[in-house]
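Suppose a colleague, Dr. K., hands you the sequence of a protein chain of 284 amino acids and asks what its three-dimensional shape might be. Before reaching for any lab equipment, you can write down a predicted structure in token form. Begin with the sequence itself:
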Amino acid sequence: MPRLGLHGLAFTPLWNPGEADRLLPPITAHGVSVIETPLLDPQNYDSTGTRRAAERNGVEIVCSLGLPAEFDIVRNHGDAVDYLGFALQVARDAGAASLSGVTYGTIGKTSGGPVTEAESDAICRLVDRVSQKARTLNMRLGLEPCNRYETHLLNTARQTAGIIERVGAANVFIHLDTYHMNIEEAGMAAGFEDAGEHLGYVHLSESNRGVPGKGTLDWAATFKALADIGYQGTMTLESFVYLAPEIASGLAVWRPVADRPEDVIDIGLPFIVEQAQAAGLDLS
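The predicted structure, expressed as tokens, is then:
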């Protein structure tokens, strides 16, 4: 059965499990059962507190990240492997069963040219080694293709599926994001179909990263496409209401994404549930 998630930056500038008992009940009242917490600083992330807060509030934790700007997957391959290995352990200690996001590169970092063969090879080596670490922790590793303005490495579901099939690791999945898909894919249906059996996680994000239903994204087509492929995984509303300065420039978010921050939850979540149900996907 599909599950509804919410990204932490939609309701708090910095995830703090000490605030969970206050913040989460109004969110779970909308049917949210998954909370995505970004690992902006894995070394100082409170895994124990997060696990306990999740258990008290009856939610599942998903962790996500992008590689720090100083990492180059070709030149600093070993450093990236170590960093992701540490992040996987942090996520596992928090109770997460997966680590996803731009696990193959840095958000907002582009070369000015197409992805090179050396870069593709480096991604495959990185994913191979990190997926082995994930397997020892009984975890899965997600790869999120992003739009051309945020990375030149992986932009589409088809490119990402190609990497996964080269590596051949069963615990690696594609993490698609409707914001990026709206820019890069031929259509929502085409993107989900290209991901195929590798699709394991979906970010639901409006065309302006704000309140779902208040932008130009075709939500009816999006949910119909997910229903048509029989998707049964987590669908997480991602909106950058509270954006950490270290990633704001990478995402090119220069102004508030919503006039009223609370509208992302109070209007956006019910809208998503309604649209999903109309397509035959029960997120209640």
